[in-house]
UniProtKB/TrEMBL annotation:
Name of the molecule in the record: ABC transporter ATP-binding protein
Keyword entries, A-Z: ATP-binding, Cell membrane, Membrane, Nucleotide-binding, Transport
Stored PROSITE patterns: ABC_TRANSPORTER_1, ABC_TRANSPORTER_2
Keyword Cell membrane in annotation: yes
């Protein structure tokens, strides 16, 4: 079966006055129809740049150095703006992390959701819906994201809704074009713990009910585990480990993945000192030679400083880019 999304050896640089930021360095990922993939890593590792590049809204000055992204047999890097309009929001859609940034404070929720519905119809070359049809479609979309108080919500402005309700509205907008692939970029970051759980439950329900293919970006391992069937761990623009979620959480093989999981508190344990990964993410204008994690790695040896590790299979669906993965 051909993967819905394939990313091969993808490298992206962002030019700056001090030199090129090597923000993505040889990304290899594949995603089948109906699959859920979580991408996890600390802030600054390139998760959001990768997600936005899939949607064609990456850094304005970003330059693809090598590699390719293919969606549903279409080379994304070769699309012109007209081609992107047929895909962006229609076949690939995105949920952003801060609803107040992406909802216009000057218009009601109903107006903004109707505009999205009309825009998608126009992009598909279909007949534009009447006012009554727009309202009916808005009702159906809000019902999908479990917003039952339709009349109040459509007449409300963004500031009149709670953070959780605003996030649900963004999810409804993302579903308006009936996409094949949904990218969720830190969808629970700005929410309190209770509302986070509700949004994760909603996303799980949408995946099961609509058969969506989902890429979820987060620095929260718990949120990823709640949604994703597979996990890719990113560090400094590189995918260092990927595999089935249960395998990654119970048998991590890369020192960086092990460090991330060791930093999580155990709610069933007693008083404990949380471990941390020493150091910080490197300067990506002048990234470390060899393995990018070696300056922070407790297992680094001479080969780690001299030679970039090649990703290798250590199980049926478990890939690790580490010289010492089998030690």
């Amino acid at each position: 079966m051909t993967a819905l999304l394939t990313i091969q050896d993808y490298r992206l640089d962002i030019p700056t006055f001090d030199g090129a930021l090597k923000v993505l360095d040889g990304i290899d990922l594949a995603l089948d129809q109906g699959e859920t993939l979580g991408i996890v890593g600390e802030s600054g590792c390139g998760k959001t740049v990768l997600a936005r590049s899939i949607l064609g809204i990456g850094p304005a000055k970003g330059k693809r150095v090598s590699g390719s992204m293919t969606f549903d047999s279409v080379e994304l890097d070769h699309l012109d703006e007209a081609g992107w309009r047929r895909i962006r929001g229609v076949k690939i859609s995105m949920i952003f992390q801060d609803p107040m940034t992406y909802l216009n404070p000057l218009f009601t929720i109903g107006r903004q959701l109707s505009d999205v519905v009309v825009a998608h119809k126009r992009a598909k070359g279909e007949r534009l819906p009447s006012r009554a049809e727009q309202r009916k479609r808005c009702h159906a979309l809000l019902d999908q994201v479990q917003i039952r108080d339709f009349e109040r919500v459509v007449d409300s402005y963004p500031h009149q809704l709670s953070g959780g309700m605003r996030q649900r509205v963004l999810i409804a907008m993302a579903l308006a074009g009936e996409p094949q692939l949904l990218i969720a970029d830190e969808p629970t970051t700005a929410l309190d713990v209770t509302i986070q759980a509700q949004i994760l439950d909603l996303l799980r329900d949408l995946v099961d009910r609509l058969g969506l293919t989902v890429v979820m970006i987060s620095h929260d391992v718990g949120a990823i585990a709640a949604i994703a069937r597979r996990v890719a761990v990113m560090y400094a623009g590189v995918v260092v480990e990927q595999g089935m979620t249960n395998d990654i959480l119970t048998q991590p093989r890369h020192p960086y993945t092990q460090g991330l999981l060791a930093a999580l508190p155990d709610i069933e344990g007693g008083h404990q000192v949380l471990e941390s990964i020493p150091g910080t993410i490197p300067n990506l204008i002048h990234p470390p030679s060899g393995c990018r994690f070696h300056p922070r790695c407790p297992r680094a040896t001479e080969i780690c400083t001299a030679q970039k590790p090649v990703a290798r299979n250590i199980g049926a669906d478990h890939v690790v880019a580490c010289h010492h993965a089998l030690d």
